[in-house]
TrEMBL record:
Molecular function GO labels: DNA binding; DNA-binding transcription factor activity
Family under the similarity heading: Belongs to the LysR transcriptional regulatory family.
Species per Swiss-Prot/TrEMBL record: Sulfitobacter donghicola DSW-25 = KCTC 12864 = JCM 14565
Domain (HTH lysR-type) ranges: 1-59
Name of the protein described by the UniProt record: LysR family transcriptional regulator
One Pfam family linked to the record: HTH_1
UniProt keyword annotations, A-Z: DNA-binding, Transcription, Transcription regulation
Record-linked InterPro entries: LTTR, LysR_HTH_N, LysR_subst-bd, WH-like_DNA-bd_sf, WH_DNA-bd_sf
Taxonomy of the source species: Bacteria, Pseudomonadati, Pseudomonadota, Alphaproteobacteria, Rhodobacterales
Length: 303
């Protein structure tokens, strides 16, 4: 096995699949990185990457080295945190991937609370509307809206959450009440961009038989702001409504959706007590925050 510095650079290129991406992550010039990879391939006497205009893809030899280097990286992480694993507070850096609805409306409160109790801990929230690749270490753990069935992952359901149709008071005052689903068909719909829905659990409008989406975004935060601007009717998370005064639920008896958040970790981190403690804090905080905000959303509708 080569020295750790070579492996560290190799892992970055393999994960980013490009010299430029790895160079940004490492703060290293891509040309220098390219020379280091060429030297590593010469030392290994094997091609580790297939280079193309699309980027760097691992060869079979590269995949084998990626596995071995990943194991070394994990061993070094475990060694580094061994002395502090049982300390009263958490420290270091933890990166959490999450869909943007969860990242915008739930995680700021949850992570702020964890941070106050663990002042030496750096928490990074990566909000992206897609599934995170934990194998390539895009994050230490991720929150998903469905339980993955493939990959070496540990998955736990954290909390269910509810969604309903909603529109702004201004929109409803201007266009009249929407008493049933048949009437709903004559109103412009706000929702996801159909070909950018990354998880079947998010295809709410298809389940309702809705056709054209007049205003669409891959971000639920943007969708909610469209509703606040009286753009039409859409499906919203109940936990987001306290952040959108003037938007209220409609047809709650006819349409009530339930989904769940899952906390996803790589199986290699199962014995990492530091990440396990953070995962427990995150799961408990997320569940409590969903319950708190959903209760607020119904309280605001009471006359």
């Amino acid at each position: 096995m080569k020295n750790w510095d070579d492996l560290r650079l190799f892992l970055a290129v393999a994960r980013e699949e490009s010299l430029s991406g790895a160079g940004k992550a490492l703060r290293l010039d891509p040309a220098t990185l390219g020379r280091r990879m060429a030297r590593l391939e010469k030392d290994m006497q094997a091609a580790l990457f297939v280079k193309s205009p699309q980027g760097y893809a691992l060869t079979q030899a590269g995949e084998k080295l990626f596995e071995r280097a990943g194991a070394v990286e994990q061993a070094m992480r475990s060694t580094a945190i061994e002395e502090t694993a049982h300390s009263e507070t958490l420290s270091g850096q933890i990166r959490l991937g999450a869909p943007d609805g969860c990242a915008n409306f739930l995680l700021p409160q949850v992570c702020a609370a964890i941070g106050r109790e663990n002042p030496a801990l750096d928490i990074q929230i990566v909000a992206l509307p897609r599934v995170f690749n934990l194998t390539r270490r895009e994050a230490d753990m991720a929150i998903g809206v469905s339980a993955p069935t493939a990959g070496r992952l540990v998955v736990r359901q954290v909390s269910e959450y509810r969604l309903h149709l909603a529109a702004s008071e201004e929109y409803l005052n201007a266009h009249g009440p929407i008493p049933d689903l048949e009437t709903l068909k004559s109103h412009p719909m706000v929702g996801y961009i159909p070909d950018m829905i990354f998880d079947r659990e998010l295809d709410y409008l298809a389940d309702l038989g809705a056709g054209r989406v007049a205003l669409a975004s891959n971000s639920v935060s943007v969708q909610l702001n469209m509703l606040r601007q009286s753009a039409g009717v859409g499906v919203v998370h109940d936990f987001s409504l306290p952040f959108a005064p003037g938007v209220r639920r409609i047809l709650t008896e006819e349409v009530s959706l339930t989904r769940a958040f899952y906390l996803i970790r790589h199986v290699d981190d199962a014995k990492n007590q530091r990440l396990a403690r953070f995962a427990d804090l995150m799961a408990a905080g997320l569940k409590a925050e969903v319950a708190r905000l959903e209760a607020l959303s119904t309280e605001h509708e009471r006359p």
